[in-house]
Each structure stands twice: as structure tokens, then as C-alpha cells.
Design a protein that fits this description.
three-stranded antiparallel sheet; 0% helix
Length: 95
């Protein structure tokens, strides 16, 4: 299970300008913050849409970046930057 921590319901941005993904492998009993490959300064954006697929986990931000992992969140990579806001994130497997 994955989520992106935000400052609060009233302040819907990532705390301290650090983009982190929280991962739980025990149905939410404990959480681990994942940062490898994600911006850790001036990342004042929100996750706009996300998707999980056999090809990996993807999310885009209001800042127009798309990040993905194929390692269950151990490391993240940018897929695209400077995009317009998305209404969904989906993947397609090519043979």
C-alpha cells in the first residue's frame, strides 16, 4: 500500500518541500518513508493522480512531473516533467 504524506487536510502540500512516498507492507500497521529518486527540496506539489499496474507504480504531481517505480518503491525515477495536469495515469504493456 502506498500514499503520499501531506502537511494537513488544510495544507495539501508535501511537508518541508520533500516528496516522499509512504509504503506499508502490513495493511497500514506500520509505514516506511521512501525518498530514493524523489526531490527532497522545493517539491511543493501535490500528487494529482496515481496508478498501480503490473508494470509498476506511477504518480503525477500538480507540478507536471510523473514518477514511477518498478521496485515496489525502493527507488523512484522521473518518467516525464513539465506536463500539464493529468486526469488519470495509466500504463500499457507492449509485447
Amino acid at each position: 500500500m502506498f500514499t503520499i504524506p501531506i502537511a494537513s487536510p488544510a495544507e495539501r502540500f508535501v511537508p518541508e518541500g520533500k516528496l516522499r512516498v509512504a509504503r506499508s507492507r502490513d495493511a497500514g500497521k506500520s509505514w516506511e518513508l521512501l525518498t530514493k529518486g524523489l526531490p527532497q527540496s522545493n517539491a511543493f506539489a501535490l500528487v494529482h493522480r496515481e496508478g498501480k499496474d503490473p508494470a509498476g507504480v506511477y504518480f503525477d504531481t500538480t507540478g507536471g512531473s510523473v514518477f514511477y517505480t518498478r521496485t515496489a518503491g525502493d527507488s523512484w525515477q522521473p518518467l516525464a516533467e513539465h506536463l500539464r495536469p493529468a486526469y488519470s495515469v495509466s500504463t500499457a504493456m507492449h509485447p
